[in-house]
């Protein structure tokens, strides 16, 4: 069975069992399929009914991934969801690179199953990097922000 046939079978499982998401690990590859019925207002349209992410899908708004400073704290996604930098389309982002943030300050929103989850900072410091693009699907544990004290 080739990779395309395997993906088609996984997608059939998602549809057959009306799943919101399916994560499959095969060797070194991890496939994450997420069913999307509609995009939130003002969001970029989903490229398909399900997305397949390679193991290294973390690309950032500040260019290709690079090595974090030794003292940078990393804020990771506590859930799988769609990453939004602002509370609504057309409104300024919660934070920008170079902004000083405090513990408890909202950094972004992750939408999961039609629920908007505010993600707050566990660290005080300066935002050095915002990795996901606005509207991108982030995986559990994926790095989203680098904050230097």
Give the SSE layout.
Layout: H1 3-16, E1 21-26, E2 29-34, E3 73-76, E4 81-84, E5 100-101, E6 106-112, E7 115-120, E8 125-130, E9 137-138, E10 143-148
Antiparallel strand pairs: 1-2, 3-10, 4-6, 4-9, 5-8, 6-7, 8-10
Low-confidence stretches: 38-66
CATH topology of the largest domain: OB fold (Dihydrolipoamide Acetyltransferase, E2P)
Mean pLDDT score: 78
Count of discrete alpha- or pi-helical segments spanning 4 or more residues: 1
Q: SSE order, as H and E?
A: HEEEEEEEEEE
Which class do the helix and strand fractions yield?
A: mainly beta
| The first-level CATH class name of the largest domain | Mainly Beta
Largest sheet: 4 strands, antiparallel
Summarize the model shown:
By secondary structure, the chain is mainly beta.
Structure description:
The N and C termini lie far apart (50 Å). The chain is 9% helix and 33% strand. Mean pLDDT is 78; it is low at 38-66. It is built from 1 helix and 10 strands; from the N terminus they run αββββββββββ. It folds into 2 domains: 1-55, no CATH class; 73-148, RNA polymerase II/Efflux pump adaptor protein, barrel-sandwich hybrid domain (OB fold (Dihydrolipoamide Acetyltransferase, E2P), Beta Barrel), CATH 2.40.50.100. The strands form 3 sheets. Strands 3-10-8-5 form a 4-stranded antiparallel beta sheet, with no helix packed on it. By secondary structure, the chain is mainly beta. The radius of gyration is 16 Å and the shape is elongated.
């Amino acid at each position: 069975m080739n990779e395309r046939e395997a993906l088609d079978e996984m997608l059939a499982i998602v549809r057959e069992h009306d799943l919101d998401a399916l994560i499959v690990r095969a060797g070194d590859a991890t496939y994450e399929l997420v069913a999307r019925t509609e995009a939130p207002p003002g969001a970029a349209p989903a490229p398909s009914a399900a997305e397949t992410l390679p193991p290294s899908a973390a690309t950032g708004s500040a260019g290709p991934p690079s090595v974090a400073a030794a003292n940078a704290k990393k804020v990771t996604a506590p859930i799988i969801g769609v990453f939004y930098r602002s509370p609504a389309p057309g409104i300024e982002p919660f934070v920008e690179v170079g902004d000083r943030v405090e513990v408890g300050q909202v950094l972004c929103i992750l939408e999961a199953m039609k629920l908007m989850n505010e993600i707050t900072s566990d660290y005080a410091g300066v935002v050095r990097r915002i990795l996901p693009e606005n509207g991108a699907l982030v995986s559990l544990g994926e790095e989203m922000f680098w904050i230097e004290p």
